[in-house]
Write a structure and sequence with these properties.
Oligomer: single chain
Largest sheet: 2 strands, antiparallel
Number of strands: 2
Number of helices: 12
Order of helices and strands: EEHHHHHHHHHHHH
Strand order of the largest sheet: 1-2
Distance between the termini: 64 Å
Helix content: over 70%
């Protein structure tokens, strides 16, 4: 067995075969300075430590240690990411369930106040919910200012030109949406609400926010046909209530379109949105109520409110809950997913109206509503495909 060559700074190769010649310092050859890395004057040592028979060099050991630390860090990151996803899923599920529960409860309670208690001021009833919402937001802002911070970009001029028009159509949606309950069943009103995507698409095409395509026209055509079939099957059909509901849906579609045009790029937290948007809605609701219902305040509204303060307080609180949870759902998911959930919520509310209120749903209405749901599912599929294409286009 040959011995390693020492003393030359140009040794051909360091010896890797003499573990028995350790001098006790842990290094082979005894010629290094104790620094632990040089044999023969100038080469990194790639052999074995006398006390370590694993065949792993100093540099390999360091690399392995860093790799293990990196893998451990990645594992921690993956675990944190998994926990965040789980928390987000729980938050989404909770928000959706609370919104559906609160929204359906509000519909049934408002219907009870309007019909059973014969409350003849539906706009005033709606305004209570909006007023309580703004009051709750202001209290939250006073207690915890960071929850509802000021925005420099929402100036008085911006509010008048952008928020006020949306408040007008929001008022129309809420006020006109209450009136059908005097003459129509809850189940039929939910069927009519399925017509909203048709009107939304028409306005989006009119304002050039949506590209024309025959598949989209087909999807809304199916929805329109299903809505017409549901109307034909309604036992207690009334033109007045139906027209009020369609007017509410026109306002809803315009509100969605104007929100996309006027508030584009203006990201707000749910409480911020309520703080800036609710006063606009309240101003139009109050004006509308005073001009059309003020004569009924003393003889109808006031006595019923005095005799049933708890019901009106609950209704106002539920109104705030609907506003807050719906915005939370939109922020966590998207407006499109909110529409999907609205359809599912409507189906649940129809079932509740049959069980709790004794509403009658005919077989023709069921076929019509099933047609609406089919058209809506197709419409949703087209919108999701369009969104996916817009995301993938920049990558190409």
């Amino acid at each position: 067995m040959s011995s390693p060559r020492h003393g030359s700074s140009h040794s051909a190769e360091p010896s890797l075969s003499l573990p028995a010649m350790s001098n006790g310092s842990g290094m082979v050859g005894g010629g290094n300075n104790g620094s632990g890395g040089v044999v023969g004057g100038g080469f990194p040592y790639e052999g074995k430590h006398s006390g370590d028979h694993s065949g792993v060099s100093v540099y390999d050991a360091e690399a392995n240690m860093k790799s293990n630390m990196g893998n451990g860090g990645n594992a921690v990151e993956r675990k944190d990411s998994k926990h965040k996803q789980q928390r987000r899923a729980i938050l989404i599920l909770t928000s959706v369930l609370v919104w559906c529960l609160v929204s359906n409860a509000l519909v049934l309670l408002n219907r009870h106040i309007l019909v059973e208690l014969n409350f003849k001021c539906p706009v005033l009833l709606t305004s209570f919910g909006q007023m309580f919402t703004f009051f709750a937001v202001c209290v939250t802002r006073a207690v915890r200012p960071a929850t509802v911070p000021d925005r420099d970009d929402v100036t008085p001029r911006f509010w008048i030109l952008h928020c006020l028009p949306i408040g007008l159509f929001s008022c129309g949606t809420l006020a006109l949406g209450q009136m059908p309950y005097y003459t129509l069943s809850v189940s039929y009103v939910q069927m009519l609400k399925a017509f909203t995507p048709v009107l939304t698409l028409l306005f989006m095409l009119l304002f050039r926010l949506e590209k024309f395509s025959w598949p989209l026209v087909l999807s809304v055509g199916i929805i329109a046909g299903g809505t017409g079939l549901a109307a034909l099957g309604e036992i207690n059909f009334a033109w007045g209530g139906t027209l009020f509901m369609l007017g509410s849906e026109v306002c809803e579609a315009m509100k969605l379109v104007l929100s996309q045009i006027l508030l584009q790029g203006l990201a707000m937290a749910p409480m911020q949105s309520l703080y800036y948007m609710t006063p606009a809605t309240i101003s139009f609701l109050v004006f509308f109520s005073v001009t059309t219902e003020s004569k009924l305040y003393v003889e109808n509204a006031l006595p019923i409110i005095i005799n049933n303060p708890g019901l009106f307080t609950i209704a106002a609180t539920l109104g705030f809950g609907v506003n807050l949870t719906s915005m939370a759902v939109v922020k966590l998911l998207s407006g499109l997913w909110l529409k999907i959930i609205v359809q599912a919520k409507g189906a649940v509310l129809m079932l509740m109206s049959v069980i709790l209120l004794g509403d009658t749903i005919t077989s023709v209405q069921l076929v019509g509503y099933a047609t609406c749901v089919t058209g809506f599912a197709y419409h949703t599929k087209l919108k999701l495909s369009s969104s996916k294409q817009r995301v993938e286009e920049p990558r190409k």
